[in-house]
Amino acid sequence: MKCHDVEKLISDYSAGALSGRMARGMREHIESCPSCARELDRLSRIMSIVEQSKPIEPPDGLWNGVYNRITDPEVQRRHSRFGRFFERPRRALSLGAAIIVVAGSVIFGISSRTPQKEASLPEPATMEYVRGHLTAASSDAFADRVSLGVIAAMPPEKE
Amino acid sequence: MVSQYIVKCSQRNPIINMEPINTVGVVQDGSKNEKDSINDKHVELVDVELVRRTKTGDIGAFEELFNRYHKRVYNIVARLIGDENDAADLTQDVFVRVFNSINGLRVEEAFFTWLRAVTTNICRDFLRRKPPRMDSLDATVQLRDGEAEKPLPDPQAGPEKLFLDEDRERTVRKAISSLSYDYRIVVIMHHLEGMDVKDIAKLLGTPIGTIKSRLARARDELRRKLGPFVE
User: CB-CB: which of A54, A66, A69 is closest to B14?
Assistant: First the structure.
C-alpha cells in the first residue's frame, strides 16, 4: 500500500469502514510509515477538538413553555387514570373481550336451561357420601363446612 | 419528589457532563469497576422512578426529568438544525411529546434512549418542512435575539490564530453545521453524544456499514475544514 492510497482511506480506516484485508494493509503501512502515522494522529486530534466542543447553553424559561402546554386541560384529561386506561388500546380491547366472554357465558348459560327442567339432584349414593363427610367435618373449624355449605343446604332425601 | 440524583458523565465528552450531586465516571471503552456498576444501577433506578411517577401525572417528577436532560436535548437539536432560535421551540416540542406519550414507554429503563429517538425524529420532521442550513465556514450566523457572529479566523493564518477558545468553538460549530444532515447527525451522535456506531445504526434505522461510511465521509470533510487549524 502506498502513502497516496493511505491518505485517501485514512478516514475510512479510522471509522472502521474498511474490510479486514484493507484495514490490515493500512495498519501495516501506518506502523512503518512516520508520515502516514502523523496524518492519522492529526485526524485524531481534529476529532478530539470536535469532541471537546462546549455545550450550548439553552435559553431560560424552556420549562415554563413545556409546563404551560402539558397542564393544558385537554392534556391533563388524557393523563388522568380514566383517560390513561382508555388511551391504551390493548387494555381497552382486553376489557372489551372479557366483557363479551362473560356476557356470552351468561347468555349461553341462561338460554341452555329450559324453564321446566330443574337441576337434577345428585344420586343418593353421592348424597350419603356428602352427608357423611359433613358429619365427619362437623368438628373441623371452618374449611370443610364452607366448601360443603351449598350441598348441605339441599333438601334431605326422602326415606 | 426525588431529592437527589446521580448522573453518569463521560470522561471524553463535556456536553453530557452536568453538575450532579455525585458523579460516576464511565471509562469510554465500556469497562467499569464494581462501584461504578452499582452507581449505574442507581442512575437507572432514579430515572425509572421518575418515569413511573410521570406516568401517574406527577408533573414534578417530569420536571425533574426535564432538568436532567433538557440541556442535552437542546444541544442535539441546536447542532442538528443549526438554528438556536428554532432549537428552543423544538426542545419544548420534544418534552411535550414525551409527556403526552410516556405511557407507551414499556421499558422505563430505556427512557433516555427513547428521548433521544423522539428528539431526532422531531428534528428530522422539522428539517423536512424547512431545509437545513448548510453554512459555509465563511457565512455569518444569526444567533439568538438577532445578534450576528463576528467573522471566523482566517484558516490561511495557521494554527496560532485559533488560540482563543471562543474562536475555536465557533469554528468547530460552523464546521459541524456545514456538513450535510446525514453526516452531521452521525458526528453529533458519535463524537458529541458518545454513541457507538451500532447504537446509531439502531437509532436511525440504517445499516451499520452505512453509518461507518457516513462517519468516514464526515471525518474527511472535518479534516479538510479544520485541518488548517491543527498543526
Answer: A54
ipTM of the complex: 0.70
Between chain A and chain B, the number of residue pairs with CB atoms below 8 A apart is 126
Alpha carbon distances (Å) from A159 to A74, A123, A154, A155, A156: 72, 14, 15, 12, 9
Residues of A with CB under 8 A from a CB of B: 11-12, 14-17, 42-43, 45-47, 49-59, 62-63, 65-67, 69-71, 75-76, 78-81, 84, 87-88
Distance CA B161, CA A14 (A): 28
User: What would the pLDDT profile of B156-203 be if each residue is shown by its tens digit?
Assistant: 555 544 556 778 888 999 999 999 999 999 999 999 999 999 999 999
Q: pTM of the full predicted structure?
A: 0.65
Between chains, do A53 and B227 touch, taking CB under 8 Å as contact? no
Element (H, E) at A37: helix A34-51
Picking from A94, A149, A87, A157, the residue whose alpha carbon sits closest to that of residue A122 is: A157
Q: How near does any CA of chain A get to the CA of B42, in Å?
A: 25
Half-sphere exposure of A136 (CA within 13 A, CB side): 7
The residues with which B23 forms a beta bridge, in sequence order, are B7
Closest CB to A51 among B67, B92, B192: B192
Alpha helices in chain B (DSSP H): 34-55, 59-81, 84-101, 111-129, 165-177, 181-187, 197-204, 208-226
Q: Find out whether A50 and B191 touch, Cβ atoms under 8 Å.
A: yes
